[in-house]
Design goal:
Blueprint: H1 2-16, H2 27-34, H3 38-52, H4 56-72, H5 76-89, H6 92-108, H7 112-125, H8 132-145, H9 149-160, H10 172-185
């Protein structure tokens, strides 16, 4: 009965399109995605893409969410195909998200050399973006997993020297040296040995 109810609701939404989304074009599909109903969400995202017409941002967003559904279903080939197309032809924001998600997919597939290249490209293109630090961390992890310890350490050092971690007016290394000197001066003479 539960499955029949969901099929009925999906058919109703498919027929009346506008009923599907109250807050956004993909509201019902997003709901299905949140409930883990990835197969049904994919169908609904297809409807959103079809009905989006010339609204490329809505269609691209729905296609990106389709890629996430395929990823959740364990279909990396379908995921990669959609992400690659969005990287090549998607709107600016979706292109950025797709490039990052592609790097994650490559990392999860243990294709570390390609993941590192992907995260380096992402960081070069979107250095000031909200995912830049995550990309730099994942670049370091990818390089470590492929055995390139020097490049991994450099990427991690670059991450730690970002302005977010820096002490105003002083370099991170000077601040760490100061902390080390303070720790040494706080030691008890009895512990000095």
């Amino acid at each position: 009965l539960r499955l029949w109810g969901r099929c009925w609701l999906l058919a109703l939404v498919w027929m009346f399109g506008a009923v599907a989304a109250s807050a956004s074009e993909s509201g019902f599909a997003d709901y299905l995605f949140g409930e883990g109903e990835f197969d049904h969400a994919i169908l609904e995202y297809h409807r959103v893409v079809y009905s989006a017409g010339d609204r490329k941002d809505i269609a691209d967003s729905a296609r990106f969410k389709m890629a996430l559904c395929y990823k959740a279903l364990g279909k990396p080939d379908r995921t990669a195909a959609i992400l690659e197309d969005l990287i090549d032809h998607g709107s600016a924001e979706i292109r950025k998200l797709s490039l990052f998600e592609q790097g994650l997919l490559l990392f999860e597939e243990k294709r570390y050399a390609l993941a590192a290249e992907n995260f380096r490209t992402f960081f070069d293109d979107y250095a000031g973006g909200s995912l830049a630090r995550d990309a730099r961390y994942l670049l370091s992890a990818s390089q470590a997993m492929k055995g390139d310890w020097v490049a991994s350490e450099q990427a991690l050092t670059d991450l730690l020297s970002d302005d977010v971690f820096a002490v105003p007016g002083r370099s991170l290394q000077i601040a760490l040296n100061d902390l080390g000197a303070q720790e040494g001066s706080d030691k008890s003479p009895a512990l000095a040995g």
